Amino acid sequence: MISILILEDEEIIANGLSFALQRAGYTTHIASNIKQAQHIIADTPIQLALLDIMLPDGNGIDFAQTLPNHIKFIFLSAIDEEDTIVNSFHLGSQDYITKPFRLPIVLARIQAIISRYQLEMPSYIRVLHHLQVDTQHLTVTPLGENEPIKFSKNEHKLFFYFFKHINQVLTREQILAYMWDNDGTFVNDNTLTVTLKRLRQKIESDTLVIETLRGIGYRLKGDIHESLS
Q: Distance (Å, rounded) from C-alpha 129 to C-alpha 143?
């Protein structure tokens, strides 16, 4: 899933953009100032940034020049001076949209940029039905949402064991052996039953299920994709 940074200090505008983009299938991250945006970029794979210019702690144009080369950016600003707009394109901006703007137009321009540059998720991101699985940071996030699912330690370990062996049957004995902590923490049969139940509640959908094969074991049944297409 494409991740988009929204650097905007007006809360109503930021939330409106975020809501519209999430409905269109993108993941969004809101920052109200440059410092917050820097933290997001350091911790999150971002492919596109929507940047205001006049910000509480600096200038969006200056900030754009610090972005990694792989992050494309668009300015959304109330400034409609010709020199500012022309300068933004000289700095590498993919577009310049003046406020007030119409959301359908912003969405269309974003989609055009994503298509033009064939922006893609990082190679360590996988899509498992309604879930985005980050195999580098080991997080699982529902598509269209920003916050990862909160797993317990056992749920987290079990999910990624199933994910590694997607569509393979795992016996209860195999799972128990894997779940045994390196520090010697014992995971008994009852703990596994409870962990399975809670994991199912957090990840299952109509198309993604942990199957119980009676007398044999369990299988996470699903399809992994490298993108939403």
A: 9
Residue 183's identity, in one-letter code, is: D
Q: What angle do CA 135, 139, 142 make, to 5 degrees?
A: 115
Residue from 52, 94, 71 nearest 4 by CA: 71
Q: Report the topology of domain 3-120.
A: Rossmann fold (3.40.50)
Strands 48-51 and 3-7: parallel
Fold exhibited by the domain 125-226: Arc Repressor Mutant, subunit A (1.10.10)
Please tell me whether residue 118 adopts helix, strand or coil conformation: coil
User: In the structure encoding, which two tokens stand for residue 16, read together?
Assistant: 């409106």
Q: Are 227 and 122 in contact (CB under 8 A)?
A: no
- pTM for this one? 0.56
3-state SS, residue 89: helix
- pLDDT per residue of the chain (229 residues) written in tens, 0 to 9: 678 999 999 999 999 999 999 888 888 999 999 999 998 888 777 889 999 999 999 999 999 999 988 789 999 999 999 999 999 998 899 999 999 898 888 999 888 888 776 655 566 778 888 888 988 889 998 876 778 999 999 999 999 999 999 999 999 999 998 887 655 567 788 999 999 999 999 999 888 999 999 999 999 998 887 654 4
Task: Round to whole Å and give the CA distance between 40 and 48.
Answer: 12
**Domain map (residue ranges) of the chain:** 3-120, 125-226
